Amino acid sequence: MIPDAKYITAEETAQPDPKTAHKNGQQRYSTSKLCNVLWTYALDRRMKASNKQFIANCFDPGLMFNTGLVREYPAMLRWVFHHVISLFAPLMRILLSPNIHTPAQSGAALARLTIGEEQGVKG
How far is the CA of 115 from the CAs of 48, 56, 94, 122, in angstroms? Predict the structure, then answer.
């Protein structure tokens, strides 16, 4: 559904060519998520190298319906996504991926990570 990330350089990601900057917003979205993960790894390495007692975490909220993810879709597809497909989220979670959540579920998971209730991991 969402295209794979396309990372070339940090500069190209931050300042894309104006001729192509308006194209494929969803790919830019997935690339921004990849950049978040890469930055988290880099931050973790820097913290370990400086003997700081910090943990760098990255969080994947999963596919969430009823968010702004499809705001650039045509009106009919937006309606279908928000009012029809979202009804099938529980079934999709079983059949397609366990990483499909409501915004409330993802928010609760992020809160648990932040306060350290997940298997001894503390954010």
Answer: 21, 13, 28, 6
Distance of CA 94 to the CA centre of its chain: 20
Q: 82-96 as b/e, with b when 16 or more CB fall inside 10 Å?
A: eeeeeeebeebbeee
Identify the burial level of 100 via C-beta atoms within 10 angstroms of its C-beta, where 0-12 means exposed, 13-18 middle and 19 or more buried.
Answer: buried
Q: What is the DSSP letter of 86?
A: G
Tens of pLDDT, residue by residue over 8-31, are 888 887 788 777 677 677 778 888
What are 20's two structure tokens? 């192509």
- Residue 112 has which token pair? 């648990």
Q: Whole-prediction pTM value?
A: 0.67
Tokens of 56: 């760098």
